[in-house]
Design a protein that fits this description.
alpha/beta, OB fold (Dihydrolipoamide Acetyltransferase, E2P), 17% strand, 24 strands, 5 domains
Length: 801
């Protein structure tokens, strides 16, 4: 019988000696950023406690005639560092809070019209049809008063409202004009700014930031024209630019646990550091110079992919893992990791509330601590090479899975397999794609390298699509922290089973049997629940519904039924929630899919219906990636038609009309996107008369109201853009609907639905039904008019019913 080596066990525990330091820093940061008024007192008490413990340590040292190194003294040292780290975190928040309080005390976040002068510090990304980026505001103008400040803000703006889109990048100085609102406690950004009056780029990036921007744009140009969906992945794999990834592929990457490949992650940074180490070794440089070469390459890579906080975190974690391996002491990486986490939290306490930071930390720790034991356990049953290959994604999946439940309450069963299949292709696409990015001055070479990088990128895209399409790929899970706790327990059980009974100490061996029993119980309960849900799920829904808004989070997916015919308007942000909704309703075929436009929150779930759609009406594509979504539906057997004013048809016995967009020759004022989305009207066959407004803005709503195509009054209106403030109340007054359905995600970052929108809908006498409060919302015709069914009751106080 084997027994654990006491020396190795003691060494393993020593690598965790700084864990209390990082844990206390994280806890203090998480609490103090949410309750900043306690920062000063916490900092003062923390520093007093740290010096008190230091005094106790000094006295103990003197009383032992200078003897050091016993367990009690080591505990005192760890306690000093832990308390000091917590005090430092609280001190940072206390020092930063005056400017943050000033921005709110002056009423700048109360919806006033303001102008924000800021410097862009985060990547400019397309989110739900808007450009979104983080910035640091150095002045805010409200009326005739200017407020010099230094606060982080999050800015969102419609692409058409940016005066110089090509100059908007990290390092740009901008003026954003619009309204602002206070963010939730615990967020780094003090204000969220909706730049409804546009963003002016006052100064483009300069120096190295300008050069990096040119390199990224050059890579985007190089992949343009290559077949989708692989082409859009190349910039994401190489330099973290996901602007060319179509929404359907993005959703498939997330569903298959490959989303870490669509943007810069620790793996990308590790590849760069590893290449630098290898080059330095070939040049005969000694170890210290190899480290310098690796860090230099990593710094350049961070600048290239934009030095936003998430990239800096990934770079730090990748550097830690790579350096510990290169130094031949992988276990020592935990000491470096916990120290790095502490330093990052002291420098930016708001990281404590970042799920990305938690995932980075969990993934790195799992690789350092558990990949090797899992590989040893797997090698008892599998070839050694396969065991090693499986251990890395398995360790990451077990560590990150519980946290990912907070985003989507599902468990991807094929995530480990997908990562195993994609693993050989990812580094090739990253390295060759990065080389293509750096050869921007040699067009022929750049095009050739981009084409080579397209091959592994296409393999990754195919892997995501294939694994997502497999039956049972997504297992529904408990939501919230209960789901986190249960999945973490299951992960521990899987780890114990894989490592094997023989590798455990004799006193711990009962854990092996307990783990097998626990895992068997979870599998049985999950399978039974899935079977019961598939049979009984539809019984809990009203049988006479005509319009049903699926609860897909921050997005739209609205079903229309006439007899045995079904239509779907948009697909939501991801395939899984839409697939669950359709399965619960027992819908396996859609006669009509209306794809109003291509923002992720409307087209991200296309993969869930590909191959089950008869006809598609789609909004005007604005890019090759948009067209690829339509082409994919056509390849799945659907007949596709561009939507335009005047189109009409039938769904069962009901009739539908397209009211918007205008034909291209008449719609120059409304380019492809939110303002050119398809607006559908449905009526007849005893169903409620309804109009679905997509993501129209105030200007396009005003044009629709003045167009003369409306036939009010309507029974139901699907409120535009998830209830944002960008509405024209006159259109809703003309529609004169009895019921207003708002498809919106709970706790979304946009502040949807906005109070001003809810207020005018209430004034118009609408019954408001929101998916964030009520889950699935169904509307049907009743003897008394129109009936609204809600999956769960909305909050009774302060909320429109």
């Amino acid at each position: 019988m084997r027994s654990a080596n006491p020396t190795s066990t003691a060494r393993w525990w020593r690598t965790l000696r700084l864990l209390p330091v990082a844990a206390l820093a994280w806890i203090v940061a998480g609490v103090i950023t949410v309750i900043p008024e306690a920062a000063q007192v916490t900092a003062l008490c923390g520093w007093i406690a740290a010096f008190a413990i230091l005094g106790a340590l000094v006295l103990r040292t003197r009383s032992r005639d200078g003897t050091r190194g016993d367990g009690a003294m080591r505990a005192l040292v760890v306690a000093i560092v832990s308390v000091a780290a917590g005090a430092a975190v609280a001190s940072h928040v206390a020092l930063a809070q005056p400017d943050r309080d000033a921005a709110l005390a002056r009423g700048l976040g109360g919806g006033r019209a303001i102008a924000v002068h800021a410097r862009v510090v985060g990547k400019v990304e397309n989110r739900a049809g808007e450009l979104a980026f983080d910035a640091v505001a150095f002045q805010i103008d409200a009326g005739s008063t200017s407020h010099p400040l230094d606060v982080p803000v999050a800015i969102r703006v419609a692409p058409a409202l940016v005066d110089r889109p090509d100059a908007l990048d990290v390092g740009s100085a901008v003026t954003a004009r619009g309204t602002a609102w206070a963010t939730r406690p615990g967020q780094r950004e003090v204000l969220g700014v909706s730049a409804g009056r546009g963003v002016e780029v006052d100064e483009p990036p300069d120096g190295v930031l300008a050069a990096a921007s040119d390199l990224r744009r050059g890579l985007l140009s190089a992949v343009r024209g290559l077949p989708e969906p692989g082409a859009g992945l190349v910039p994401g794999l190489a330099v973290g630019d996901t602007s060319a990834v179509d929404p359907a592929l993005d959703a498939e990457m997330k569903a298959s646990s490959l989303s870490h490949l669509t943007a810069v992650s620790g793996a990308n940074c590790a590849i760069v550091v590893g290449l630098a180490f290898a080059a330095a070794a070939l040049a005969g440089l000694r170890r210290s110079l190899r480290v310098v070469a690796g860090l230099t390459a990593l710094t350049g890579f961070v600048v290239l992919v934009t030095p936003e906080p998430s990239v800096v975190r990934a770079a730090a974690m990748a550097a830690i893992a790579m350096l510990s391996v290169q130094l031949g002491r992988p276990a020592a990486g935990m000491s470096i990791l916990t120290l790095a986490v502490t330093v990052l939290l002291v420098g930016d306490p708001w990281l404590a509330g970042s799920l990305g930071f938690a995932l980075s930390t969990a993934a790195t720790a799992s690789l350092l601590l558990f990949a090797r034991p899992l590989a040893v356990g797997l090698s008892r049953h599998l070839p050694r090479g396969l065991a090693l290959a499986l251990s890395v994604p398995l360790a990451a999946q077990l560590a990150c899975g519980p946290l990912l439940v907070l985003i989507t309450p599902t468990v991807p069963l094929y995530g480990v397999v997908a990562n195993l299949l994609a693993a050989p292709a990812a580094p090739v696409a990253t390295i060759v794609g990065l080389a293509a990015c750096l050869t921007v001055g040699v067009p022929l070479l750049q095009s050739g390298l981009a084409a080579i990088a397209w091959l592994p990128a296409s393999w990754i895209a195919a892997t995501a699509s294939t694994t997502t399409a497999l039956p049972g790929g997504q297992v529904p899970w408990l939501e919230g922290w209960a789901g986190v706790a249960v999945l973490a327990t299951v992960g521990i059980a899987i780890g114990v089973i894989v490592i094997g009974r023989g590798a455990l100490r004799s006193r711990a061996r009962p854990l092996h049997a307990i783990s097998i029993a626990l895992l068997s119980a979870v599998i049985g309960v999950t399978a039974g629940t899935a079977a019961l849900t598939s049979v009984a799920g539809r019984w809990t829904l009203p049988q006479d519904w005509s319009i049903l808004a699926c609860d897909v989070g921050q997005g739209d997916a609205v079903l229309i039924r006439s007899g045995t015919s079904y239509a779907l308007i948009d697909t939501g942000p991801a395939p899984e929630p839409l697939a669950r909704c359709l399965s619960r309703l027992g819908i396996g075929h859609l006669d009509l899919l209306v794809l109003t436009h291509y923002d992720k929150d409307h087209a991200g779930g296309v993969a869930a219906v590909r191959g089950m759609v008869g006809a598609v009406i789609y909004g005007p594509p604005a890019s090759q990636a948009n067209q690829a979504v339509v082409d994919g539906l056509r390849a799945g057997g659907a007949e596709t038609t561009a939507g335009a004013l005047g189109m009409h048809g039938t769904l069962g016995a009901a009739e539908w009309r397209v009211l918007w967009p205008r034909p291209p020759a008449l719609s120059r004022a409304f380019p492809a996107g939110n303002d050119a989305c398809v607006v559908l009207e449905v009526r007849g066959s005893g169903m409620p008369t309804a109009i679905f407004l997509g993501d129209m803005s105030e200007s396009s709503q005003a044009a629709l109201a003045a167009s003369g195509v409306l036939l009010p009054a309507y029974d139901v209106v699907k409120v535009a853009h998830h209830g944002s403030a960008d509405q024209d109340p006159r259109l809703y007054a003309a529609i004169h609907a009895a019921v207003a359905v708002i498809s919106v995600g709970a706790g979304n970052d946009y502040g949807h639905p906005r109070s001003v929108t809810l207020a005018f809908l209430q004034e118009l006498g609408c019954v408001i039904a929101r998916t964030d409060q009520s889950g699935i919302v169904a509307v049907s015709r009743t003897d008394a008019g129109v009936g609204v069914w809600r999956e769960r009751a909305p909050p009774p106080v302060g909320t429109a019913q």
